[in-house]
Amino acid sequence: MTDPWVALEPGADPSERVRVLRRAHETFTTAGTVPRPVRSVVADSWRRSARAGVGPDGSANVELTDGALGAYRAEHPLARVMPLFRELMGTFAADGEHLLAVCDAHGRLLWVEGHPATRHRADRMNFVPGALWAESAVGTNAPGTAVAIGRPVQVFAAEHFIRRVQPWTCAAAPVHDPRTGRVLGAVDITGGDGLAHPHSLGFVQAVARAAESQLALLSPPRPAGEAAGLAALGRDEARLLLDGRRITLSRRHSELLVLLARHPEGLTGDELLCALYEDESVTPVTLRAELARLRRLLGPGLLASRPYRLTAPVESDVAVVERRLAAGAVTAAVAAYTGPLLPGSQAPAVVRLRRRLADGLRAALIARRDPDLLADWAHASWGEDDLEVWRALTVVRPTAMVRARLEELESELTAPRAPAAAPTGRATWLQRPRP
Protein backbone atom coordinates (compact mmCIF):
# COMPACT_ATOMS: atom_id res chain seq x y z
CA MET A 1 0.00 0.00 0.00
CA THR A 2 1.51 3.33 -1.06
CA ASP A 3 -0.34 5.58 1.40
CA PRO A 4 -0.66 4.14 4.93
CA TRP A 5 -3.42 6.62 5.77
CA VAL A 6 -5.72 5.33 3.02
CA ALA A 7 -7.69 2.27 4.04
CA LEU A 8 -8.13 0.65 0.64
CA GLU A 9 -5.86 1.31 -2.32
CA PRO A 10 -7.48 1.67 -5.77
CA GLY A 11 -8.14 -1.70 -7.38
CA ALA A 12 -8.22 -3.67 -4.14
CA ASP A 13 -11.06 -6.13 -3.59
CA PRO A 14 -13.06 -4.88 -0.56
CA SER A 15 -14.53 -8.31 0.20
CA GLU A 16 -11.14 -10.01 0.20
CA ARG A 17 -9.64 -7.24 2.36
CA VAL A 18 -12.46 -7.65 4.86
CA ARG A 19 -11.76 -11.40 5.13
CA VAL A 20 -8.04 -10.77 5.66
CA LEU A 21 -8.71 -8.08 8.27
CA ARG A 22 -11.12 -10.29 10.20
CA ARG A 23 -8.49 -13.01 10.44
CA ALA A 24 -5.93 -10.43 11.56
CA HIS A 25 -8.35 -9.05 14.13
CA GLU A 26 -8.99 -12.53 15.49
CA THR A 27 -5.24 -13.15 15.69
CA PHE A 28 -4.72 -9.94 17.62
CA THR A 29 -7.57 -10.47 20.07
CA THR A 30 -6.43 -14.03 20.82
CA ALA A 31 -2.64 -13.88 20.51
CA GLY A 32 -1.84 -10.17 20.81
CA THR A 33 0.11 -10.00 17.54
CA VAL A 34 -0.76 -7.91 14.49
CA PRO A 35 -0.14 -9.68 11.17
CA ARG A 36 0.07 -8.05 7.79
CA PRO A 37 -1.54 -6.31 5.95
CA VAL A 38 -2.93 -4.33 8.90
CA ARG A 39 -1.88 -0.69 8.49
CA SER A 40 0.46 0.73 11.12
CA VAL A 41 -2.06 3.41 12.18
CA VAL A 42 -4.62 0.66 12.81
CA ALA A 43 -2.14 -1.67 14.53
CA ASP A 44 -1.08 1.13 16.89
CA SER A 45 -4.73 1.91 17.61
CA TRP A 46 -5.53 -1.75 18.32
CA ARG A 47 -2.68 -1.87 20.82
CA ARG A 48 -3.87 1.32 22.54
CA SER A 49 -7.39 -0.08 22.63
CA ALA A 50 -6.21 -3.30 24.27
CA ARG A 51 -4.11 -1.40 26.81
CA ALA A 52 -7.19 0.64 27.69
CA GLY A 53 -9.07 -2.55 28.48
CA VAL A 54 -11.49 -2.38 25.54
CA GLY A 55 -13.01 -5.74 24.64
CA PRO A 56 -13.88 -6.71 21.05
CA ASP A 57 -17.48 -7.40 22.06
CA GLY A 58 -18.00 -4.12 23.90
CA SER A 59 -20.34 -1.24 23.08
CA ALA A 60 -20.51 2.50 23.45
CA ASN A 61 -22.15 4.12 26.47
CA VAL A 62 -24.45 7.13 26.20
CA GLU A 63 -23.19 9.78 28.64
CA LEU A 64 -25.35 12.79 27.80
CA THR A 65 -29.06 12.90 27.04
CA ASP A 66 -31.89 15.40 26.73
CA GLY A 67 -31.26 18.71 28.47
CA ALA A 68 -27.68 17.95 29.48
CA LEU A 69 -26.79 17.12 25.88
CA GLY A 70 -28.53 20.23 24.57
CA ALA A 71 -26.76 22.51 27.03
CA TYR A 72 -23.37 20.95 26.31
CA ARG A 73 -23.81 21.25 22.55
CA ALA A 74 -25.00 24.85 22.77
CA GLU A 75 -21.82 25.86 24.62
CA HIS A 76 -19.42 23.85 22.49
CA PRO A 77 -17.25 25.83 20.02
CA LEU A 78 -18.14 23.49 17.14
CA ALA A 79 -21.81 24.53 17.42
CA ARG A 80 -20.82 27.68 15.53
CA VAL A 81 -19.71 25.70 12.48
CA MET A 82 -22.50 23.10 12.38
CA PRO A 83 -24.28 25.10 9.62
CA LEU A 84 -21.05 24.85 7.61
CA PHE A 85 -20.78 21.11 8.21
CA ARG A 86 -24.37 20.63 7.08
CA GLU A 87 -23.85 22.76 3.99
CA LEU A 88 -20.70 20.94 2.91
CA MET A 89 -21.57 17.39 3.96
CA GLY A 90 -25.33 17.15 4.52
CA THR A 91 -26.35 16.41 0.94
CA PHE A 92 -23.46 14.00 0.45
CA ALA A 93 -24.46 12.10 3.59
CA ALA A 94 -28.15 11.96 2.73
CA ASP A 95 -27.71 11.00 -0.93
CA GLY A 96 -25.05 8.41 -0.20
CA GLU A 97 -26.94 6.89 2.75
CA HIS A 98 -24.13 8.00 5.05
CA LEU A 99 -24.01 9.83 8.37
CA LEU A 100 -22.43 13.14 9.26
CA ALA A 101 -21.11 13.02 12.82
CA VAL A 102 -19.29 15.56 14.98
CA CYS A 103 -17.57 14.71 18.27
CA ASP A 104 -15.79 16.71 20.95
CA ALA A 105 -12.12 16.41 21.91
CA HIS A 106 -12.88 13.37 24.08
CA GLY A 107 -14.65 11.43 21.34
CA ARG A 108 -18.13 12.16 22.70
CA LEU A 109 -20.61 12.41 19.82
CA LEU A 110 -22.43 15.75 19.71
CA TRP A 111 -24.34 15.51 16.43
CA VAL A 112 -25.21 12.53 14.23
CA GLU A 113 -27.24 13.41 11.12
CA GLY A 114 -27.93 11.91 7.70
CA HIS A 115 -29.95 9.24 5.95
CA PRO A 116 -32.86 8.07 8.20
CA ALA A 117 -32.41 4.34 7.54
CA THR A 118 -28.68 4.57 8.18
CA ARG A 119 -29.31 6.46 11.40
CA HIS A 120 -31.70 3.74 12.53
CA ARG A 121 -29.01 1.10 11.92
CA ALA A 122 -26.42 3.20 13.73
CA ASP A 123 -28.73 3.60 16.72
CA ARG A 124 -28.40 -0.13 17.39
CA MET A 125 -24.67 0.27 18.16
CA ASN A 126 -25.20 3.52 20.11
CA PHE A 127 -23.66 5.70 17.41
CA VAL A 128 -25.90 8.48 18.66
CA PRO A 129 -25.49 11.99 20.10
CA GLY A 130 -24.21 11.89 23.65
CA ALA A 131 -22.43 8.54 23.29
CA LEU A 132 -18.73 8.21 24.09
CA TRP A 133 -16.77 6.96 21.09
CA ALA A 134 -13.31 7.67 22.46
CA GLU A 135 -10.68 5.16 21.39
CA SER A 136 -10.09 4.33 25.06
CA ALA A 137 -13.79 3.44 25.43
CA VAL A 138 -14.74 1.62 22.21
CA GLY A 139 -11.43 1.03 20.48
CA THR A 140 -10.42 1.92 16.95
CA ASN A 141 -12.95 4.13 15.13
CA ALA A 142 -12.49 7.18 12.93
CA PRO A 143 -13.77 10.01 15.18
CA GLY A 144 -12.24 8.57 18.37
CA THR A 145 -8.92 7.75 16.73
CA ALA A 146 -8.75 11.10 14.91
CA VAL A 147 -8.89 13.03 18.19
CA ALA A 148 -6.51 10.53 19.82
CA ILE A 149 -3.75 11.00 17.22
CA GLY A 150 -4.62 14.53 16.11
CA ARG A 151 -4.80 13.88 12.37
CA PRO A 152 -7.27 12.67 9.71
CA VAL A 153 -7.86 8.91 9.67
CA GLN A 154 -9.89 6.39 7.72
CA VAL A 155 -11.13 3.15 9.30
CA PHE A 156 -12.38 0.40 7.03
CA ALA A 157 -14.68 -2.45 8.10
CA ALA A 158 -12.81 -4.97 10.29
CA GLU A 159 -10.17 -2.38 11.14
CA HIS A 160 -12.66 -1.34 13.82
CA PHE A 161 -11.72 -2.87 17.14
CA ILE A 162 -15.26 -3.70 18.29
CA ARG A 163 -16.91 -6.40 16.21
CA ARG A 164 -20.36 -4.85 16.05
CA VAL A 165 -18.85 -1.78 14.34
CA GLN A 166 -17.01 -3.80 11.68
CA PRO A 167 -19.81 -3.61 9.06
CA TRP A 168 -19.14 0.15 8.88
CA THR A 169 -16.48 2.35 7.28
CA CYS A 170 -15.72 5.90 8.36
CA ALA A 171 -13.33 8.80 7.84
CA ALA A 172 -12.75 11.66 10.26
CA ALA A 173 -10.52 14.68 10.68
CA PRO A 174 -9.78 16.70 13.82
CA VAL A 175 -10.83 20.35 14.05
CA HIS A 176 -8.43 22.68 15.88
CA ASP A 177 -9.00 25.95 17.68
CA PRO A 178 -7.43 28.48 15.26
CA ARG A 179 -6.17 30.62 18.16
CA THR A 180 -4.66 28.00 20.47
CA GLY A 181 -4.11 25.02 18.16
CA ARG A 182 -5.91 22.66 20.55
CA VAL A 183 -8.17 19.93 19.19
CA LEU A 184 -11.83 20.89 19.62
CA GLY A 185 -13.23 17.65 18.21
CA ALA A 186 -13.58 15.90 14.87
CA VAL A 187 -15.90 15.81 11.87
CA ASP A 188 -16.74 12.34 10.55
CA ILE A 189 -18.48 10.65 7.66
CA THR A 190 -19.75 7.13 8.41
CA GLY A 191 -21.38 4.58 6.10
CA GLY A 192 -20.56 1.66 3.85
CA ASP A 193 -17.43 0.30 2.17
CA GLY A 194 -17.53 2.99 -0.51
CA LEU A 195 -16.14 5.45 2.02
CA ALA A 196 -12.82 3.58 1.96
CA HIS A 197 -12.01 5.57 -1.20
CA PRO A 198 -9.11 8.04 -0.79
CA HIS A 199 -11.47 10.90 -1.69
CA SER A 200 -13.45 10.53 1.54
CA LEU A 201 -10.32 11.11 3.62
CA GLY A 202 -9.44 14.23 1.64
CA PHE A 203 -13.06 15.35 1.86
CA VAL A 204 -13.31 15.34 5.65
CA GLN A 205 -9.88 16.95 5.91
CA ALA A 206 -10.98 19.79 3.62
CA VAL A 207 -14.20 20.24 5.62
CA ALA A 208 -12.22 20.38 8.89
CA ARG A 209 -9.89 23.04 7.44
CA ALA A 210 -12.90 25.05 6.24
CA ALA A 211 -14.36 24.87 9.74
CA GLU A 212 -11.10 26.13 11.26
CA SER A 213 -11.09 29.06 8.82
CA GLN A 214 -14.70 29.83 9.71
CA LEU A 215 -13.91 29.72 13.43
CA ALA A 216 -11.04 32.14 12.89
CA LEU A 217 -13.42 34.58 11.19
CA LEU A 218 -16.03 34.16 13.94
CA SER A 219 -13.49 34.81 16.72
CA PRO A 220 -13.35 38.57 17.29
CA PRO A 221 -10.04 40.25 18.12
CA ARG A 222 -9.26 40.32 21.81
CA PRO A 223 -10.46 43.65 23.24
CA ALA A 224 -8.05 45.74 25.27
CA GLY A 225 -7.95 44.46 28.83
CA GLU A 226 -9.20 40.96 27.95
CA ALA A 227 -7.23 38.20 29.62
CA ALA A 228 -4.27 36.85 27.73
CA GLY A 229 -3.95 33.05 27.65
CA LEU A 230 -1.15 31.06 29.25
CA ALA A 231 -0.73 27.33 28.50
CA ALA A 232 1.71 25.72 30.94
CA LEU A 233 0.32 22.23 31.49
CA GLY A 234 2.18 19.34 29.92
CA ARG A 235 4.98 21.50 28.55
CA ASP A 236 8.33 22.71 29.86
CA GLU A 237 8.13 25.94 27.88
CA ALA A 238 4.81 27.70 28.37
CA ARG A 239 2.99 29.36 25.50
CA LEU A 240 1.47 32.82 25.88
CA LEU A 241 -1.27 34.12 23.61
CA LEU A 242 -1.05 37.91 23.76
CA ASP A 243 -2.62 40.40 21.35
CA GLY A 244 -2.78 37.83 18.61
CA ARG A 245 0.83 36.74 19.14
CA ARG A 246 1.83 33.25 20.21
CA ILE A 247 4.93 33.55 22.35
CA THR A 248 6.91 30.50 23.44
CA LEU A 249 8.59 31.34 26.72
CA SER A 250 11.88 30.14 28.12
CA ARG A 251 11.70 27.82 31.12
CA ARG A 252 12.49 30.58 33.61
CA HIS A 253 10.07 33.03 31.99
CA SER A 254 7.44 30.26 32.03
CA GLU A 255 7.89 29.89 35.79
CA LEU A 256 7.72 33.64 36.30
CA LEU A 257 4.50 34.06 34.35
CA VAL A 258 2.81 31.08 36.04
CA LEU A 259 3.54 32.60 39.44
CA LEU A 260 2.66 36.18 38.50
CA ALA A 261 -0.61 35.06 36.86
CA ARG A 262 -1.44 33.24 40.08
CA HIS A 263 -0.71 36.32 42.21
CA PRO A 264 -2.38 39.31 40.54
CA GLU A 265 -1.66 41.33 43.69
CA GLY A 266 2.03 41.01 42.89
CA LEU A 267 5.14 39.48 44.47
CA THR A 268 8.19 41.17 45.89
CA GLY A 269 11.65 40.39 44.64
CA ASP A 270 12.40 38.38 47.78
CA GLU A 271 9.20 36.38 47.38
CA LEU A 272 10.08 35.57 43.78
CA LEU A 273 13.60 34.54 44.77
CA CYS A 274 12.23 32.09 47.33
CA ALA A 275 9.61 30.82 44.89
CA LEU A 276 12.01 30.24 41.99
CA TYR A 277 15.43 29.29 43.27
CA GLU A 278 16.50 26.37 45.43
CA ASP A 279 20.03 27.73 45.52
CA GLU A 280 20.10 30.54 48.09
CA SER A 281 23.26 31.95 46.50
CA VAL A 282 21.28 33.34 43.54
CA THR A 283 21.33 37.11 43.83
CA PRO A 284 18.54 39.65 43.28
CA VAL A 285 20.56 40.95 40.32
CA THR A 286 20.03 37.63 38.50
CA LEU A 287 16.28 37.84 39.09
CA ARG A 288 16.07 41.46 37.95
CA ALA A 289 17.89 40.56 34.73
CA GLU A 290 15.37 37.78 34.01
CA LEU A 291 12.46 40.12 34.68
CA ALA A 292 13.96 42.77 32.42
CA ARG A 293 14.24 40.25 29.58
CA LEU A 294 10.66 39.13 30.19
CA ARG A 295 9.44 42.73 30.13
CA ARG A 296 11.08 43.31 26.74
CA LEU A 297 9.51 40.11 25.41
CA LEU A 298 6.00 40.99 26.58
CA GLY A 299 6.09 44.56 25.39
CA PRO A 300 5.55 47.82 27.24
CA GLY A 301 3.15 48.13 30.12
CA LEU A 302 2.28 44.53 30.94
CA LEU A 303 4.86 43.84 33.66
CA ALA A 304 5.08 46.35 36.51
CA SER A 305 7.40 46.40 39.52
CA ARG A 306 7.31 47.22 43.25
CA PRO A 307 5.84 44.68 43.61
CA TYR A 308 6.30 42.69 40.41
CA ARG A 309 2.86 42.17 38.92
CA LEU A 310 0.96 41.85 35.65
CA THR A 311 -1.09 44.89 34.74
CA ALA A 312 -3.64 42.90 32.70
CA PRO A 313 -5.33 39.58 33.53
CA VAL A 314 -3.65 36.43 32.25
CA GLU A 315 -5.88 33.34 32.19
CA SER A 316 -3.80 30.21 32.71
CA ASP A 317 -4.84 26.64 31.99
CA VAL A 318 -3.89 25.89 35.60
CA ALA A 319 -6.60 28.26 36.82
CA VAL A 320 -9.15 26.66 34.47
CA VAL A 321 -8.48 23.19 35.92
CA GLU A 322 -8.61 24.49 39.49
CA ARG A 323 -11.89 26.33 38.88
CA ARG A 324 -13.58 23.29 37.34
CA LEU A 325 -12.29 21.00 40.05
CA ALA A 326 -13.56 23.33 42.77
CA ALA A 327 -16.99 23.32 41.10
CA GLY A 328 -17.08 19.52 41.09
CA ALA A 329 -16.87 19.34 37.28
CA VAL A 330 -14.37 16.47 37.28
CA THR A 331 -14.80 15.49 33.63
CA ALA A 332 -14.32 19.08 32.51
CA ALA A 333 -11.30 19.48 34.79
CA VAL A 334 -9.66 16.36 33.37
CA ALA A 335 -10.42 17.61 29.86
CA ALA A 336 -8.48 20.79 30.53
CA TYR A 337 -5.56 18.96 32.16
CA THR A 338 -3.05 18.25 29.39
CA GLY A 339 -0.25 17.13 31.68
CA PRO A 340 1.77 18.14 34.75
CA LEU A 341 2.55 21.81 35.20
CA LEU A 342 5.96 22.67 33.68
CA PRO A 343 7.12 19.09 34.34
CA GLY A 344 10.84 19.87 34.11
CA SER A 345 10.72 22.77 36.55
CA GLN A 346 12.33 22.40 39.96
CA ALA A 347 11.34 25.86 41.18
CA PRO A 348 9.96 25.20 44.69
CA ALA A 349 6.70 27.09 44.21
CA VAL A 350 6.06 25.45 40.84
CA VAL A 351 6.77 21.99 42.29
CA ARG A 352 4.25 22.60 45.08
CA LEU A 353 1.60 23.83 42.67
CA ARG A 354 2.24 20.95 40.26
CA ARG A 355 1.80 18.39 43.04
CA ARG A 356 -1.26 20.07 44.52
CA LEU A 357 -3.02 20.24 41.15
CA ALA A 358 -2.23 16.63 40.18
CA ASP A 359 -3.09 15.27 43.63
CA GLY A 360 -6.41 17.10 43.63
CA LEU A 361 -7.32 15.67 40.25
CA ARG A 362 -6.23 12.16 41.23
CA ALA A 363 -8.31 12.26 44.40
CA ALA A 364 -11.36 13.44 42.46
CA LEU A 365 -10.91 10.73 39.83
CA ILE A 366 -10.58 7.98 42.42
CA ALA A 367 -13.65 9.23 44.28
CA ARG A 368 -15.63 9.52 41.01
CA ARG A 369 -14.89 5.87 40.05
CA ASP A 370 -15.51 6.54 36.36
CA PRO A 371 -13.68 3.75 34.48
CA ASP A 372 -13.08 5.82 31.34
CA LEU A 373 -11.66 8.80 33.21
CA LEU A 374 -9.46 6.53 35.32
CA ALA A 375 -8.28 4.67 32.21
CA ASP A 376 -7.44 7.92 30.42
CA TRP A 377 -5.30 9.00 33.39
CA ALA A 378 -3.66 5.59 33.84
CA HIS A 379 -2.68 5.37 30.18
CA ALA A 380 -1.34 8.93 30.01
CA SER A 381 2.41 9.37 30.35
CA TRP A 382 1.98 10.95 33.80
CA GLY A 383 -0.30 8.19 35.07
CA GLU A 384 1.33 5.02 33.79
CA ASP A 385 3.07 4.43 37.15
CA ASP A 386 0.29 5.84 39.35
CA LEU A 387 -0.34 2.93 41.70
CA GLU A 388 -3.44 4.36 43.41
CA VAL A 389 -5.17 5.11 40.11
CA TRP A 390 -4.40 1.62 38.79
CA ARG A 391 -5.83 0.16 42.00
CA ALA A 392 -9.00 2.21 41.54
CA LEU A 393 -9.21 1.22 37.88
CA THR A 394 -8.87 -2.47 38.78
CA VAL A 395 -11.96 -2.19 40.98
CA VAL A 396 -14.18 -0.70 38.27
CA ARG A 397 -12.59 -2.30 35.18
CA PRO A 398 -10.92 -5.57 36.28
CA THR A 399 -9.67 -6.71 32.87
CA ALA A 400 -6.68 -9.04 32.58
CA MET A 401 -4.51 -6.22 31.24
CA VAL A 402 -5.42 -3.87 34.09
CA ARG A 403 -4.82 -6.53 36.74
CA ALA A 404 -1.48 -7.45 35.17
CA ARG A 405 -0.31 -3.85 35.18
CA LEU A 406 -1.35 -3.43 38.83
CA GLU A 407 0.55 -6.57 39.82
CA GLU A 408 3.61 -5.26 37.98
CA LEU A 409 3.47 -1.93 39.80
CA GLU A 410 2.97 -3.57 43.19
CA SER A 411 5.90 -5.91 42.61
CA GLU A 412 8.09 -2.93 41.69
CA LEU A 413 7.00 -1.24 44.92
CA THR A 414 8.06 -4.19 47.08
CA ALA A 415 11.29 -4.97 45.18
CA PRO A 416 14.53 -4.09 47.03
CA ARG A 417 16.10 -0.86 45.87
CA ALA A 418 19.75 0.01 45.37
CA PRO A 419 21.26 2.50 47.84
CA ALA A 420 20.79 6.10 46.76
CA ALA A 421 23.84 7.95 45.48
CA ALA A 422 25.25 10.71 47.61
CA PRO A 423 23.88 14.16 46.70
CA THR A 424 26.02 16.32 44.48
CA GLY A 425 25.50 20.07 44.45
CA ARG A 426 22.03 21.37 43.63
CA ALA A 427 19.14 19.33 45.00
CA THR A 428 17.75 16.66 42.65
CA TRP A 429 14.87 15.38 44.75
CA LEU A 430 12.35 15.91 41.97
CA GLN A 431 13.83 14.31 38.89
CA ARG A 432 10.43 13.05 37.80
CA PRO A 433 7.30 14.99 38.71
CA ARG A 434 4.61 13.11 40.52
CA PRO A 435 1.46 12.61 38.46
Automatic annotation (TrEMBL):
Biological-process GO terms, alphabetical: phosphorelay signal transduction system; regulation of DNA-templated transcription
Residue span of region Disordered: 413-435
GO molecular-function term, one example from the UniProt record: DNA binding
InterPro entries: GAF, GAF-like_dom_sf, OmpR/PhoB-type_DNA-bd, Sig_transdc_resp-reg_C-effctor, WH-like_DNA-bd_sf
Biased composition (Low complexity): 414-428
Coiled coil (UniProt feature): none
Sorted UniProt keywords: DNA-binding, Transcription, Transcription regulation
Residue intervals of the OmpR/PhoB-type domain: 244-310
Name of the protein: Transcriptional regulator
Gene3D superfamilies in UniProt: 3.30.450.40, Winged helix-like DNA-binding domain superfamily/Winged helix DNA-binding domain (1.10.10.10)
Source organism superkingdom: Bacteria
